[in-house]
Automatic annotation (TrEMBL):
This is Zinc finger CGNR domain-containing protein. Residues 137-180 form the Zinc finger CGNR domain. Pfam families: ABATE (PF07336), zf-CGNR (PF11706). It comes from [Actinomadura] parvosata subsp. kistnae. InterPro entries: ABATE, ABATE_dom_sf, Znf_CGNR. The lineage of its organism: Bacteria, Bacillati, Actinomycetota, Actinomycetes, Streptosporangiales.
Length: 182
């Protein structure tokens, strides 16, 4: 995909966030502040102060809005859903160099909450993806018991499973067994 490092990072963050949602077939992945803190650390989200229950509630709401973008049945719906999220998000573009990264743009305000930070950076990354006509890269796993989302970054847009080592492998084994039984 012709996307820069920041955008790839933000897309990976939104995928990881959405997949903590019970809407994707598993348990609530953000069940408390410890889980929220682990998410912040795993995605290296900078400038986050002490997290509160309010952050947890706000991040979960943003997460569900992003889930609706991923599962939109068509591009106009994805655009409308993302626009609704962006309209509620404080976005303040700012050039920055930090932690050894080259000059890049942050979209969250300097005093942003965690939810505002994620909504702004991931929202803008998804907006660019839609602008590039790549809405169909926003996918839901094809395994019957898995609704995790992913961004298909393959050249020929052929990826169908959220993770080739887990769901992909599982489905290949199931298909193999079905063939042997037949
Ligand atoms: Zn940065
Ligand atoms: Zn899956």
């Amino acid at each position: 995909m012709p996307f820069g490092h920041d955008m790839v990072h933000s897309l990976a963050t939104v995928v990881e966030l959405v997949n903590t949602s019970p809407s994707t077939g598993g348990e609530e992945g953000l069940s408390g502040l410890a889980e929220l803190q682990a998410f912040v650390e795993s995605r290296k989200i900078s400038g986050v102060s002490t997290l509160t229950a309010r952050d947890l509630g706000q991040v979960r709401m943003v997460r569900e809005a992003f889930h609706r973008v991923f599962t939109a049945p068509d591009q106009p719906t994805a655009v409308r859903t993302l626009n609704a999220l962006l309209a509620e998000t404080r976005i303040t573009p700012r050039l920055t160099e930090h932690d050894g990264h080259p000059l890049h743009v942050h979209y969250f305000a300097a005093d942003a909450t965690l939810a505002e930070h994620v909504a702004a950076d991931c929202g803008v990354a998804l907006a660019h993806l839609l602008v590039e006509g790549e809405a169909e890269r926003l996918r839901t796993c094809s395994a019957p018991d898995c609704d995790r989302v992913f961004v298909d970054e393959s050249r020929n847009r052929s990826r169908v499973y959220c993770d080739s080592r887990t769901c992909g492998n599982r489905m290949h084994v199931a298909a193999y067994r079905a063939r042997r039984r037949a």
